[in-house]
Amino acid sequence: MPQNRFASLLNEQIAHEFSASQQYVAIAVYYDGDALPQLAGHFYRQSLEERNHAMMIVQYLMDADLPVTIPGIDGVRTEFANIAEPVALALDQERRVSAQIAALASAAREDGDFMGEQFMQWFLKEQVEEVASMTTLLRVVERAAANALQVEEYLARENASEAADPTAPRAAGGAL
Q: What is the CATH number of the domain that holds 136?
């Protein structure tokens, strides 16, 4: 099957997802180094989620018999001025990814790639959740101001109820 514009953009998105994953590792390490295990754990999980998004795209491309490009990524930010700055960066990143996912869905539609358009539906839903979640976390962090332990308590409560999404596309490599 020849590569269309949608497939080309999907390959670019793999880089964006891996880059987001690495940025979340950097944020997690920042919080880990500041003895904030809930914030660190939250961003380590976010990193794995972004990596899995890349691998879902890889699996889709392989299933569609389209070429897959595994890119290198640019450097990530590792220094932050305060506890809120990494969350604000993460929110900006999620908003940027939302725009990328919307552009992918639009490209699939314009290419007449109905299977590709259907594949993107889960990612559209996921991005709404990601932006909402990160917006809330930023509000909590800003309200807590100098008391990071309040953020830790909030995340301990919120993370206790997380469950895997059974509608998520399969990621290449399975549940490694």
A: 1.20.1260.10
